[in-house]
Amino acid sequence: MIEEPYRWVEAIANRREYIETQLAPGSPIAALSYRDGILFVTVGRARQKLFEIYDRIAMGAIGHPGDIERLRMVAIELASTEGFTRSAADVSLRRLAFYSLSPVLKTAFEQVYGAPYLARMTFAEVGATPAEDLFLRVEYDGSITANGPATDAQPPRFSAVGGTTRGTELMETLLRREHDPGCTLNRAMKVALDAWSAGSMPVTEGSGNEIPSAEALRQHRTEELQSATVEACVLERSSPNAIRYRQLAGEELKELTAA
Amino acid sequence: MTSDSLGGGASDFPTLLRRHGLLNEAVLFPPGVSGSTASSFTPTQATTILAFKFTGGVLVAGDRRATAGNTVVYDRADKVLEIDRHSIMAIAGVPATAWEMARVLEHSLQYFGRTQLQEMSVDGKVRALSKLLRDNFGFVVQGIGVVVPIFATYDFAGGGQARLYFYDAMGAQFEVTEYAATGSGSPAVRGVMFYQNKWGKTPLHKLREEDAVTIALRALDTAAEADTATGGVDRNARIFPLIKIISRDGIKTLPEKQIAARFKSTVA
Fold first, then answer.
1. Could you give the CA distance from residue B92 to residue B129 in angstroms, rounded to a whole number?
2. N or C: which end of chain B has fewer CB within 10 A?
3. Is there a contact between A77 and B110 if contact means CB atoms under 8 Å apart?
4. What is the ipTM, given to two decimal places?
C-alpha cells in the first residue's frame, strides 16, 4: 500500500491519464430511442462492439477487448442468474450497473497495484415507451451517467460514448439538437451515424467545440467507411418474443445506411 | 463476484447455477436408508406426448392432463414447452422436475448464445438435456421424479432439416426418423403411428398439415381411451391437446379454434 495519501492521489491521476490515452482512439458508439425501440450504432474494423446482455438489455463498449469481455461476462452472468431464479421482469439494468458493475470497476481502478479495466461502456434497457427507456454510460472508474434524473420532465433519450471527453460532448450536443425519440428507425440511423461522425472526427486547428457541418460529417464518414463497416443492433419495443435484441445485418443494414 | 469467478466453465449455465448453489443434483439415498419418500408419496405425473415429422416440419402434441395416482390434479397442463425459437421440449413424467429442467435448458441455450455469440449446435442442445436428465437420476431410482422428454428442433446445418429425439429417464438420447411418443399412453400412440405409416393412405412424412393434426388428435384420443392418465380430448369442457409445429420459420402454436374445428370434422 502507498503510505502517503498524496502519492495515492498522484497514482490515481496518472492511471486516469493512462486509461484516457488508451481509450482515445476508440470508435464512438451512439445509442438512441426511436419509436419502435432502441438503436445502437458504431463503426468498426474487426471485432464486435455491440452485445446482447439480456432480453431487454444491450451494451456497447470501447476499450481493451480482454477487459470488455470480462465485464460483459459479469453482466450476462448476473442478469442470467437473476432472470433464472426470479423472472426476466426482475432483471434491472439500473441495479446491474449501480450495485454490481460500479463497485467492481471502482475497486479495480483504485487498487493502484492491480490492473484497472480499460473500458468505457454504454448500456440501454428498452421500455414500453421511449419515455421508459433507460441509458447508462459506465466509466472505467465505476462512475455512471444516466440519461437525466428521474425527476427530469424530458430527459434525453440517448447515450453517447466517445474515445475522448470532447468526442462524447460533441455527440451529445448533436444528439440533443437533432434527435427525436419518436422518430423512425431510418431517421434514428441517420442521426446516429451523424453523431458517430461528430464523435470520431479528429481535432483540427480552430475546430473548437462546434459541431462540424453536415457536409463535413458526411465526407468524414464516407472516408472512414472505405476501410470499416457499420455495426448496429436494436432492442425492439414490442415483440411477441421475450428476447428483444436483434443484430442488424445484410440487406436491412445496407438499406438503412444507404444515402 | 470477481473476475476470478470467470473460469473456462463460464459458458455452461448449469455450472454457473451450481456455483451459486441454485441447482443441485437429485440426492440419491443408499438402499435401506430412510429418507426415501417413494412409498408414502405419490408425485404428480403428466402424460402423453407425441411428435412426428410431416411435410411442414415436425409436429409436437401433448394432452393436458396431470395426475397423481388415481387423482386428476390438473386438466390444463402445458407439456409442450418452447425452449428457443426452433426447439421444443415435450414432457411426460413429473412436472415439477420437468418444468424446472425445461427452464434450466431454456436459460442454458440463451446463456450460451449471449456469452459465446453463436447459437448452440443441435448436438450441443441434445446433449445439454441429456446431462440434466442424468443429474436427475437420484430422483428416478427413488421413483419420484421420472421425466421422459421428447426434444424436437430444426437443424440449419447441412441444408436444414427437422430433427427429433426421445430420451429415457437416465438421459440416453435416441434420434428418430419418423415419430416418437412417451408417457403412459404412448403404446397406443405408437400403435396409431405404426398403423398410419404401414397401412394408412399416406405415411406420416408425406402428410399435409391438416391431416397431420387429425392424426395427432386421433392418436391422443386413442391413448385416452384405455389410459386414465391421458386426458385426450375433453368433449364436455372443450379442452383440446396442445399442438405446436416447428419449421424453418420457427415455432407455430396452433390456435385452439383451429384444433377444435379439425377435431369436430375429422375426429369426433
1. 14
2. C
3. no
4. 0.90
Ranges of beta strands (E only) in chain B are 45-46, 49-54, 57-62, 66-68, 71-74, 80-84, 87-90, 150-155, 161-167, 173-176, 179-182, 242-247, 250-253
Mean pLDDT of A105-130: 94
Q: How far is B73 from chain A (nearest CA, A)?
A: 25
Q: Collapsing DSSP states into helix, strand and coil, what is residue B22?
A: coil
pLDDT in tens, A50-78: 999 999 999 999 999 999 999 999 999 99
Is B167 at the interface with chain A, CB within 8 A?
A: no
CA A27/CA A48 separation, integer angstroms: 12
Chain segment B217-227, per-residue pLDDT in tens:
999 999 998 88
Q: What is the CATH number of the domain that holds A29?
A: 3.60.20.10
B117 vs A48, A80, A241: nearest CB: A48
Domain that holds residue A74: 5-247
| pLDDT tens, position by position, B183-217 | 989 999 999 999 999 999 999 999 999 999 999 99
Residue A25 lies in a domain: yes
Flag if B6 and A52 touch (Cβ within 8 Å): no
Answer whether B118 touches A (CB < 8 Å). no
Q: Which of B176, B178, B241, B194 is nearest to B213 (CA)?
A: B241
Tell me the per-residue pLDDT of A123-136, one tens digit each, with 9 for 90 and over.
999 999 998 999 99
Nearest by CB to B10, from A73, A78, A104: name it.
A73
Query: Domain tally for chain A?
Result: 1
B4 at A interface, C-beta within 8 A: no
B10 pLDDT higher than 60:
no
Mean pLDDT calculated for residue range B90-99: 90
Catalytic residues of B: 47
Query: Which CATH number is associated with domain B43-266?
Result: 3.60.20.10
Chain A positions in Cβ-Cβ contact with residue B2 (cut-off 8 Å): 104
- CA separation (Å) from A94 to A62, A74, A75? 20, 15, 12
Whether residues B16 and A81 touch (CB distance < 8 A) is answered with yes
Residues of A in contact with B3 (CB under 8 A): 70, 74, 104
CA of A98 vs chain B CAs: smallest distance (Å) = 14
Does residue A102 sit within a domain? yes
